[in-house]
UniProtKB/TrEMBL annotation:
Protein known as: Hydroxymethylpyrimidine/phosphomethylpyrimidine kinase
Entry keyword Mitochondrion: no
Gene source species: Leuconostoc suionicum
GO molecular function: ATP binding; hydroxymethylpyrimidine kinase activity; phosphomethylpyrimidine kinase activity
Domain Pyridoxamine kinase/Phosphomethylpyrimidine kinase: 15-262
Pathway where this protein functions: Cofactor biosynthesis; thiamine diphosphate biosynthesis; 4-amino-2-methyl-5-diphosphomethylpyrimidine from 5-amino-1-(5-phospho-D-ribosyl)imidazole: step 3/3; Cofactor biosynthesis; thiamine diphosphate biosynthesis; 4-amino-2-methyl-5-diphosphomethylpyrimidine from 5-amino-1-(5-phospho-D-ribosyl)imidazole: step 2/3
UniProt enzyme class: transferase
PANTHER family according to UniProt: HYDROXYMETHYLPYRIMIDINE_PHOSPHOMETHYLPYRIMIDINE KINASE THI20-RELATED, PHOSPHOMETHYLPYRIMIDINE KINASE
Length: 275
């Protein structure tokens, strides 16, 4: 039957080196056995040394991408990545209200792991007031969570408090990633706060690697893929967390500096789960 296969949409920027952004999202959709589609809103000239230039696409072309997908496909879940500025955020919000693209996972991409700014400061209010209230799941890392909430996150209590603050912006479910436990340097702890107020921690070992480009993109894309396949939110987040940790554990040796995680390695996760 037409459109029965689970379809997922990424609304994001292209990263020319393939390690992050839309490219990482599409790799993730593929390994999670979903059909990936993309609305391109921006593009960066990036390599493993960093981001060297960035451009945004014309708003009418962005609108058109949404419109033609809505005309033909049944998107079951979506995610956002790099949105650069307030006009792009508003274009996404407008399309999301007009069309049915399923539950939305918002990865509030603000900077790269290496400090390049991907969302201009003037767009913070639009992120907080317009986009996050549409999110079924938001996936800030602890650094982004600090910027969104104005809190310092130095311990697990503060991480949990920040998640509550983010929920109060209208987000249903929140995962704050990447708190590198100061008392236990071998562990990274992610905190999950669900819509019903229940919560849990997801912990994985700290992998000492410079190959972590695309980590946040992969996690949020995997959550969207699992939602598209009908998983409940907590299960989607747990699977995405495992898949991402597996991909980090097995880096790919390309580029001279900060390289990609390994989506192929994470394919093995399919053997454990997901028939
Ligand atoms: O991983 C964050 C990210 C998102 N989107 C684009 C990027 C990056 C990081 O480099 O380039 C386009």
């Amino acid at each position: 039957m037409v459109n029965e296969f689970p379809q997922v949409l990424t609304i994001a920027g292209s990263d020319s080196d393939g390690s992050a952004g839309m490219q990482a999202d599409l790799h993730t959709f593929f390994i999670r056995k979903t059909y990936g589609m993309s609305v391109l809103v921006a593009a960066v000239a990036g390599n493993s040394y960093g981001i060297h230039a960035a451009e945004t696409l014309p708003l009418d072309f962005i609108d058109k991408q949404f419109e033609v997908l809505a005309d033909d496909f049944k998107v079951r879940a979506s995610k956002t990545g790099m949105l650069s500025d307030a006009s792009l955020i508003e274009a996404v919000v407008k399309a999301y209200k007009k069309f049915d693209f399923g539950p939305l996972v918002v990865d509030p991409v603000i900077t790269t792991k290496h400090g390049a700014q991907l969302l201009e400061a003037a767009a913070f209010e639009a992120l907080k007031e317009k986009l996050l209230p549409l999110a079924t799941v938001a996936t800030p890392n602890f650094f982004e969570a600090q910027l969104i909430t104005g809190r310092t996150i130095d311990n697990e209590q503060q991480q949990a408090a920040a998640a509550k603050d983010i929920q109060s912006l209208g987000v249903q479910n929140v995962i704050i990633k990447g708190w590198h436990n100061q008392d236990n340097q071998n562990e990274v702890a992610d905190y999950v706060l669900l819509a019903d107020g229940s919560d849990f921690w997801l912990r994985h070992p700290y992998f000492d690697t410079t190959h972590i480009n695309g980590t946040g993109d992969t996690l949020s894309a995997a959550i969207a893929a699992e939602i598209a396949k009908g998983k409940d939110i907590a299960t989607a987040i747990r699977i995405a967390h495992d898949v991402t940790a597996t991909a980090i554990e097995h880096e790919i040796a390309v580029g001279h500096k900060f390289g990609p995680i390994n989506h192929w390695a994470a394919q093995d996760y399919n053997k454990k789960e997901d028939k």
